[in-house]
């Protein structure tokens, strides 16, 4: 679909070209038949309009590979905590990467000058996988699994805490080294795997009328699989009041 923009239309609107049906001329001497004259004229018109900036892609198309494929969604009011929590939960559940969903949230609500997340490792914590989690990851009882607990921060705000169990044999050596030695968020490290996120469960505590920075908003359990369908990670994420623009200190 093509969209008309600029001074020729007050609002972007889809246009279509209706062309008369014309039988293509019979090929001669083995040459490929030429397009009908009306079709050639329409192609020239579209190319000229694109060059002049009068036609754009449908605004729902993602341009950077990480944007959502649907139309832009209006931001929730910054002074309505419950609307913000609902909007954040919807954004996380609709995304295949919580990292990029949170960075988009941080940018949209201007929570920090640099919206990129930092994974602050919480040392000295270990949680073994349950049998149910191993089943979701499709691994046996002896398959090595690494665990890390992190706090995802945007600027000076901690937006979430996460327990992360991942199967190192299903990541590249470079990915494992990055996870061991840097503060790069997990979602950014495994981005080349084209992960697909499957929600296991969502839990919400009793809501606070005015959540503080460290108050839990909701929890999400999810399994990440490669684009080919192989699970490689399970996360339990707790989203905090620090994700809200006007959270009380």
Task: Give me the side-by-side strand order of the main sheet.
Answer: 4-5-6-9-8-7
Number of strands: 9
Biggest sheet record: 6 strands, antiparallel
- Structural class of the secondary structure composition? alpha+beta
**Can you count the helices?**
6
Mean pLDDT: 79
- Radius of gyration, in angstroms, nearest whole number: 25 Å
Low-confidence parts, pLDDT < 50 over ≥5 residues? Answer: 1-25, 27-39, 45-71
Order of helices and strands: EEHEHHEHEEHHEEE
Basic shape: globular
The proportion of strand residues reads: 15-25%
Q: Kindly report how far apart the N and C termini lie.
A: 48 Å
Q: Level of helix content?
A: 10-25%
Description:
There is one protein chain. The chain is of the alpha+beta class. The protein has 6 helices and 9 strands; from the N terminus they run ββαβααβαββααβββ. α2 (81-94) runs antiparallel to α3 (98-108).
Structural features:
six-stranded antiparallel β-sheet; 249 residues; globular; alpha+beta
Task: Write a short abstract of this structure.
This protein has 249 residues and is of the alpha+beta class.
Task: Indicate the topology.
Layout: E1 2-4, E2 13-15, H1 37-52, E3 55-57, H2 81-94, H3 98-108, E4 118-121, H4 131-136, E5 146-154, E6 157-166, H5 173-181, H6 186-189, E7 196-203, E8 216-225, E9 231-240
Helix pairs in contact: 2-3
